[in-house]
Fold this sequence. Notes:
The complex is a heterodimer of chains A (about 325) and B (about 475). Chain A has about 325 residues and is an alpha+beta fold. Chain A has helices at about 5-25, 140-150, 205-215, 285-295; strands at about 50-55, 65-70, 70-75, 80-85, 90, 100-110, 120-130, 155-165, 170-175, 180-190, 195-200, 235-240, 250, 265-270, 275-285, 300, 305, 310, 315-320. Chain A has a 7-stranded antiparallel beta sheet with strand order 5-6-7-11-10-9-8, with helices on both faces. In chain A, strands 1-15-14-19-12 form a 5-stranded mixed beta sheet. In chain A, a hairpin with a 2-residue loop joins strand 10 (about 180-190) and strand 11. Chain A is globular and about 55 Å long. The model of chain A is unreliable at about 1-25 and about 325-335 (pLDDT under 50). In chain B, a hairpin with a 5-residue loop joins strand 3 and strand 4. The model of chain B is unreliable at about 10-20 (pLDDT under 50). Chain B has about 475 residues and is mostly helical. In chain B, about 60% of the residues are buried. At the A-B interface, strand 6, strand 7, helix 2, strand 10 and strand 11 of A face strand 3, strand 4, helix 5, helix 7 and helix 9 of B.
Amino acid sequence: xxxxxSRSVVLLGFSVSFLASGQAAPQSGGDFxxxxxxxxxxxxxxLAKGAWSSASDSVTPLPEGTRVNKNIYSNAYFGFTxxxxxxxxxxxxxxPPSDSGYYVLAQLRPADTFKGTSRGxxxxxxxxxxFTVAPASNAMELITYNKESLSAEYKVEQxxxxxxxxxxxxxxxxxxxxxxxxxxHLLATQIRCHMIQFVFTSRDTKLLESxxxxxxxxxxxxxxxxxxxxxxxxxxxxxxDYASGENIMERVDPVFAERRFNPVxxxxxxxxxxxxxxxxxxxxFPDQAKAITDALFQWRFRPYLRDGKPVEVxxxxxxxxxxxxxxxxxxxxxxx
Amino acid sequence: MKTMKLASVFACLVALFSPAMLxxxxxxxxxxxxxxxxxxPLASVTTNPNDLAFFQTGLAQFNEHQTVTGDNPGLGPRFNxxxxxxxxxxxxxxxxxxxxxxxxxxxxxxxxxxIANGVVSGSTNTIPFFVLANGPVRExxxxxxxxxxxxxxxxxxxxxxxxxxxxxxxxxxxSCSLQQPSFNAARAANNIIFRIPTxxxxxxxxxxxxxxxxxxxxRAQGGNNLGISGTFNHNGNDGTISRFGWKAQNKSLMIFxxxxxxxxxxxxxxxFTQDRPLPGEDQLGSGLPANCLNLAGVGYPEDxxxxxxxxxxxxxxxxxxxxxxMQFLDQPTPSTTSPGGATSIANGRKLFSAIGCAxxxxxxxxxxxxxxxxxxxxxxANLFSDIEIHHMGTVLADNVxxxxxxxxxxxTAPLWGLGQxxxxxxxxxxxxxxxxxxxxxxxxxxATNVEAIFDxxxxxxxxxxxxNFLRSL
Lengths: 336, 473
């Protein structure tokens, strides 16, 4: 039965099959790979970051440089330390700074060991007052704007009021959502031309009050206050729009390789000689950051004098597209 | 005695678990008792015979199956499917991924049927591992190019669409012989992500919202106290806010249609004028082989405006017709009573805003005056989106950059029509609303705080109200 003919068919089929596979030799590289033992990319890591925060050096503290060690929250840039109740923890880190100068510094929730019956959350955030989209230039104005922007879902329980926390002035503001039976208690102060905001959320007002009382254990820099704040020590003076007019003695515009339309908020520290010593990008693509850094290090500023002596200055510059301009009627965010 | 003990244990268990069972929140599922509530033209289109004829012609073209040669030529040489309407079909043409077992039972995932239906040759193509009969329609992307050793190179971003199928082996494809991308190797290297079709209902309204309206909404949401601060993607040509696609990477419906016609179906057109090779074939190789070009034999672009047409709809290109069809699609009609009843839905809507979901999922925005049709002008678009892109964190990150959107940034997905959608999130990983909500929480995500409030601070009945509200949309 196994004839020469059938044997030929089998051989022919085998040959055709072999030829076919030979024609479709797997490619490699680009969209093609044939190595099933290849190294795996890590999971849940953002490798393609887009516009992100970065800095010209890795030594100078940054606002986003949060540390949560056990239950101690600390931030070297803002110079404050906050000891949390041991049963509170950060499960997830926040997003990168936004291109409107908003930082999520920490978001805390009850740990698995939490024994209370009420749940809640703590959000510690910062808003760079040089780049805010709200028509406000200090913490008090921002919280007031916040109150005026509340939707009809909420009811104000305590309008913005100045209170003392840890021997510093804070703005305290409280509102409730009747339908959700949730209370929001906000406390805000101002450090280095940023509003620092603590947002406590829970159904249980007693829990909120106890958390706020714990804030009295905070260590804060001397300048912390809700309206003007006072710099000092090693902290540069922060001045809005210092990089303008006659303060700029030499200016080199950055050369961008690619046309983009994202806002690029930048904080710089100018040394006593008027040179840029530190550049912090809140949000920029890497090519933008490089071009702007290369340019800024060539800028020369008029040294800022305090009591006749030059001091370091921190200011903000918006590169790229700035589609909105806050329209504050109040004084600019200046520490002096 | 033994029976008594067992009864007591049972009674205790019932007492222990009944309240939880009674109040445990569940996704009500696809709303099926109110008919199909999407896919209709705007009322102003229905009352204008010319506009309606345009819409109907666009609908027919949207549902037409393309072939390599013949009456509807241009398919391939690479493609994800042969028709717009096959992928955008739930719960009506213009929508998203269908299912055969879920209302309105449109049919199985059409990509899973391409060999059975003769759209591709089974001797030269295989159905990729991520295409399942009861799963979502998907396109695939490799975030990074492979190097010559088969490793994904994080320093070589790719992110382009890797078309699933080739025309190779079809009787109308001549000698064009193309290999499918290495989907299995990409899975092994953790170098593959997916996207599902975005629904197009109401997109004419979205196209007609002025940038100033979006910026004002952005400013109004600035003091949200929730950890949220998004931004916009911009069109690279004129710098205005772009708004279509999972990362708001497309400026207009015409660009959206033209790109999809070329990328998803392989049909060159007046916006995208060449047949599209894979990203690596284009950037690292020599493009498509000569024997895979001009397979339709009609020259390029394969879809054109017809100068020999006699009516508006016969003159217009396919891309133009798709655009008109989508522009004229009305927004989905929500239910005020289903599921869960009017009280629950109304309560859920309030809770949705109260806990912060509406900070990004903006309930409504007003359109600018329209020259196209009255229904698009000065209208309330109940889209539940701010059209901003937000950092969604590591759980949802796909490591694909598009325009100004980075690897973990996504446009706030419009929620209109959610009640009759089957698959959620950009890659269709969830078919349960609770799964989709849970995915909003992760390292680096803007929505983590809001998700935690939903998860930890609402009662089960409040959570249920929100789920009912979402399924009413």
